[in-house]
Request: fold
Amino acid sequence: MASSAEQQKQKQKGGGGDEGSGKGDGTQKLAEKGEELKEEMDNLLDEIDAVLEENAEEFVKNYVQRGGQ
Reply:
């Protein structure tokens, strides 16, 4: 996750070469980037949710008390 954030920072620093392209074009690119980041975040959250569900089931199975403890 940290590497993805670092990549985003590097991409933002490297931008700005198309200053003459107009504000409308920049707004469109920004909106597209926002949608891309939203999709990445949704995918990451879905993956985390799946891992937590799997680990929760395993935790409950392992938590069963044995021998009257």
In short: The mean pLDDT is 74. The CA atoms of residues 31 and 47 lie 24 Å apart. Helices lie at 2-14, 23-63. The chain is about 80% helix and 0% strand.
